[in-house]
Amino acid sequence: MIESVIATNYLNAGLSVLPADRMLKCPRGKWKEWQTRLPTAEEERAWFANRQDAVCIVCGKVSGNLEVLDFDNKGELFPRWKESVPADLLAKLVIEQTPSGGYHVAYRCAGEICGNIKLARGVREDKTVTLIETRGEGGLVLCAPTEGYTIQNGDYANLPRLTAEERVTLLNTAWQMDEAKHGPQPTQNDMPSGFSLFEPNPSSFEQRPGDDFNLRGDVRGLLEHHGWKSLGIQPDGNEYWRRPGKETDGNSATLKDGVFYVFSSNAAPFEANRGYAPFTVYALLEHNGAYNEAAAKLLECGYGKAASDDGGVNLEPFLNTIRQKEEQQLYTGRELLRQFTEMKPPLIDGLLRREEVMNIVAAPKTGKSWLVMQLALCLVTGREWFGHQCPQSRVLLIDNELHKETIACRLAKVATAMGIPLEDETIDNLTVFPQRGMAKDLTLLNAKLAEFKNRRFDVIVIDALYKALPATVDENSNGQITAIYNLLDGYARQMKSAIILVHHTSKGSQANKSVTDVGSGAGAQSRSPDTHLTLRTNEEEGVASVYCCVRSFPPVAPFCLRKSGNNLWELAPDCSPENLDGRASAEPTQLGKMRRTPVEDVADMIVENVHELNLPLSKTLMVEKVREACNTSKDKASAAILYLLNSGYLEERRGDSKSHQQAMKCVYFGPNSPMYEPPVSTKACFRAAQI
């Protein structure tokens, strides 16, 4: 029988869990209501107070976008599918075996999911049967601890949330096992729901060299030249390919029967969930989707004419052209002077040019989003922004923090305060892309930018950067942050737009930091962009000191801004930007006076002045306090604390919920400290091997 605590755990995990009939494999009674709302705790207790022999979970949005892959026919395809999925992705999944020998693979998705999809079918005993399908919106699954259902990995109460790319990897790997015969040019009917085939309109080819290339061309050399890597041909005939920039062995696309099928959402210029004919691959990679131009070039290379005797085509003519273009990235001094005679045009004079990247950094809740809305309206109307002229521009604002209603309210207030009528047509030069609660990952932005390409945006604003970073990116890693800015540079070139990023400061006072140190995370966040603009609190209330570092303009003198009562920022010429709040602070503490850099010295200062830290503290907060007080790096502060942990002067214990300690680990005085107080229970104490 199913214990009620199981249902309670599932419900607490955000799952729509219902009692089920094990023999009929369906919920007891009507269950449509639970497709759109979670049961209450009282309803769960009432249901499972009776002896239930099975439990089931409703899939889809109601359960946090739960999707389950169902491997039928005694799970015959599961072992082969399992071997084809990247090991790191497989380890995340919840996997259970069913009473019939089949398998369920469960996960949550970053975005909303569709209904059930039949991914793989085959003929068994003269009947077509479904071998792999999904349970999505409107579906449900019986699950453990129902008799016969055995969890092999993970836990339904702790489901992983997959990115769009990870989900497509799972679906595509299953779909590739479909035993239905696909012709050399699959149609939309050959693709599962949510997948599509992309082909250009044949009527755009006057001499039809693209058709000839589709029949005789081989895109392997072209893909390799553009950074794609073949991972080999699989037993089912699919050749797996890994996209440029991806370092793991996970496959991003397949090539079979002339169709290059892409399921990665970060494989520009290709879009996810689409198959591409050879000519389309060539046109996108070499001619930015200009099919007539691509056809004309192929015509020069012998396509559209009679085939050679051996039926093959020599791709060297246009590959040599590509190589020559790549080699031309080296210039002599005079070549450089002749070819690049002018700078890119400014979009904010003195601060930002087309195809550059700019940071706007300020502390949380200081009004930087209001400032950016004001900047956007200056750009779309062609007004000055604090003395910097802005030519009239088209702006895309990607906002991942505010609700649509809040954005609309702020837009109306700022426009009205600026004297812009709400019916003014120039406001249509601003396009807003609200992303709160949706896919905000920068690596997923490329597909959207491809859709926006024909709209010719001059400036793209991303508010805020920290919410757009991929889940796997460490904000404090210089290498990973540099890669993010390289990605943004590519987007800027692709769109021929400038990109403005709204970012937040690190914790603590910013007054004594240099301009390039203002901003949370790795130093690459200030060094990589072309413009780094910071707002720091001035001594005068409601005033911010603005400092800029620019790469392609003369130095910009610092200035002050004041928040007015009508939701606008205004220049404050009567204030001095040098009067930063906290710079002329009171006498520093003894701990703050010490600036010796060796780890042992920092540890000594902690011991001498530990009373100023008010232990216990969470590990993260203690590192921040020591770093700020000793004016040292985060790594050195962490190393000093680790030194004291190893010496027994400090001790790390689990947070005490009775004392409202939310952190998993807190730092206390250790047994070698005169202020040591043993924990109430020895089970609550453990020594840390590392900070």
Q: Would you mind describing this structure in some detail?
A:
This protein is α+β, with helices and mostly antiparallel strands and 691 residues long. It contains 20 helices and 33 strands. The protein has a 9-stranded mixed β-sheet with strand order 24-23-25-26-20-27-28-29-30, sandwiched between helices. A hairpin with a 2-residue loop joins strand 15 and strand 16 (259-262). The radius of gyration is 30 Å and the shape is globular. Residues 181-191, 201-207, 305-319, 321-328, 584-597 and 681-691 have low confidence and may be disordered.
Give the topology.
Layout (H helix, E strand, L loop, with lengths): L3 H9 L3 E6 L4 E2 L13 H9 L5 E4 L7 E6 L6 H7 L2 H4 L3 E4 L5 E7 L8 E7 L2 E9 L4 E4 L6 E4 L7 E2 L1 H12 L20 E3 L10 H8 L3 H6 L3 E5 L5 E4 L10 E4 L2 E4 L11 E3 L1 H10 L3 H10 L15 H12 L5 H7 L6 E3 L3 E2 L3 E6 L5 H14 L2 E2 L2 E2 L5 E5 L4 H14 L12 E5 L10 H8 L6 E5 L14 H18 L2 E7 L19 H4 L3 E7 L5 E8 L8 E5 L5 E3 L18 H4 L5 H10 L8 E2 H11 L4 H14 L2 E5 L10 E5 L22
Helix pairs in contact: 1-2, 8-9, 12-13, 18-20, 19-20
Task: Sum up the structure in keywords.
691 residues; alpha+beta; nine-stranded mixed beta sheet; seven-stranded mixed beta sheet; 20 helices; 28% helix; globular; disordered C terminus
